[in-house]
Amino acid sequence: MNEIYFLVVAVIALALFFDFTNGFHDTANAMATPIATGALKPKTAVTIAAILNLVGAFISVEVAKTISGGLINEDPSGGGVLIHPGFIFAGLIGAIVWNLLTWLLGLPSSSSHALFGGLIGAALVGAGFSSVNYDVLLAKIIIPAVLAPTIAGLGAFLATRIAYKITRRFDSRPDGRGGFRWGQIFSSSFLALSHGTNDAQKVMGVITLALVSAGMQEPGTDPQFWVILSCALAIALGTYSGGWRIIRTLGSGLTEVKPAQGFAAEVTSATTVLVSSHFGFALSTTQVASGSIIGSGLGRRGSKVKWRTAGRIGIAWLMTLPAAGIVGALAAWVAHFGLIGYIIDTFVGMIIILGIWLWSRKQKVNHENAVSGVAASAKVVKIKKNIKPLEPRRAKKARKVAKARKKEKEAKAAAKLREEMLKTAEIEKIEAKKKAKQDSKKKKSKKKGKGAKK
Amino acid sequence: MIDWSLFPLVTVVSIGVAVLLVVIFSIGIRLLASAGYALAVEPKEFTDQITLPDEEELKAAKKMKKKLQKQLSDAERRLYVAGAICCFVLAAAIIISGLLLLLGVDKHLFG
């Protein structure tokens, strides 16, 4: 029994650490643009993001329920499989190690998918194939993983197009698009709130799953209040501590994002994440934000997709779930040996985390290793410079009509000229004929005169 | 069992609400610009670094703003600004009502 208590405490500590790193890592995604545009001071932006992440964690528990009561069959009385807290511990070790590795290598990756992958891998090795609810995996994780970035991309594309169309002016007066910078304060805050709603809940789900598997909570029940509060505080603290990273992200991939475009992208990301959270879809907020940044980039005139960059990011996204699953499965296999296995897992995990941390301290901070997932996806769209300004539709139409009239006039003039030429040609012909007749008459009369003389 | 109807619902609601919010906010921005309350000069190259318009550009912006405000009558300007404020308030109301729906306030109110 003591072993289970120890494992539950270890799972809670690891899960809260994961939540902290999630907030730490994702602040840049939400708050980079308002700081970059000067709409908010870095400290204010980070404080707002931290508070809204905290508030967001209290909005819904649907995603937490997906993880604690749907993804893994944890209820033996309901025909499920008994999941040992040790496997959840192994899954978390797998997720954290994979997350830190991708961060170190500068690969765009989703921490949420790393968490799911780690959990699923550990459950498969620890309790067999029947431990995973494949319907929930497909409906609440895999389909949303493809659908949500697509929805965000399409929505951001439409929203950017419309925003540009509404604010476009042809009378050389200012279009006021600078106002979108102020709008970005609200859209970024909205995004931070939605981030707290979806991401904090995943960890709530993991802690609840550990409590259920240890017999400390009834299966199928909502997360307890202290779990919600601790997860909300962990993500908020992580967000606040991660503020410094924003400054590093500024010089990287978001260079082409204009205020109207950024506003449209942030609003679309936030609505997609919030609506999905309401239905219990466990999404990667980084992937949604990336999808909307790409969509909004394509909504601008003169944009082009860099397929090679897009493909590289897509492959990294696809790899996250199975790769974290393999790491989680390995950790679960080691955990099979009982207490010694958990100690080995913890020891190896700590060494890897410490090693990566020490190695990262030696690295110089530059635009290459400071690129966030969203900033990397901003590089997928290339925007042409010096695009010809658009003409108003009325002017375009008037120009066309004038051109048609000019053509008509020219055609008429040409026809008239031809007619005149023809006329002159005919006159010349008639005159020539007349002359020829006269000449022949003269010749005839001459011949007649000669004949008469003879 | 997978509830397939959720996917089109999420798609329509997410895109619909986002586009609606952006349309309303853009109309507000447009009205504000028409009233002469727009930031007249944008940085030539938007770099997302902390580079805001320099002093000369800001002076030119202020001059342009005054010129624009002179072209409108007071009533017209007030009307435009009121319209813009209505748009911003409407956008905020949509966000707040959406969050209340997520919190399930409608269930508490209407059973």
Residue windows where pLDDT falls under 50 for at least 5 positions of chain B: 40-51
Radius of gyration of chain A, taken over Cα atoms and rounded to an integer in Å: 36 Å
Q: State which percent range the strand residues of chain B make up.
A: under 5%
Overall pLDDT of chain A: 80
Kindly state the percentage of residues in helix of chain B: over 70%
Query: How many beta-strand runs of chain B?
Result: 0
* Morphology of chain B: elongated
Describe the largest sheet of chain B: none
Q: Which structural class best describes the helix and strand composition of chain A?
A: mainly alpha
The most extensive interface between chains reads:
A-B, 62 and 46 residues
- The CA-CA distance between the termini of chain B, in Å, is 27 Å
Average pLDDT reading of chain B: 77
Notable characteristics:
heterodimer; A: 454 residues; mainly alpha; two-stranded antiparallel sheet; 2 strands; B: 111 residues; 4 helices; 0% strand; elongated
Write the layout of secondary structure elements.
The complex is a heterodimer of chains A (454) and B (111).
Chain A: H1 2-36, H2 42-56, H3 62-71, H4 85-105, H5 111-127, H6 134-167, H7 179-213, H8 225-241, H9 243-250, H10 259-278, H11 285-298, E1 303-305, H12 307-335, H13 339-362, H14 373-378, E2 381-383, H15 393-453
Antiparallel strand pairs in A: 1-2
Helix pairs in contact in A: 1-2, 1-4, 1-7, 1-8, 1-9, 2-7, 2-8, 2-9, 3-7, 4-5, 4-12, 4-13, 5-12, 6-10, 6-11, 7-8, 7-10, 10-11, 12-13
Chain B: H1 6-34, H2 55-71, H3 74-103, H4 105-110
Helix pairs in contact in B: 1-3
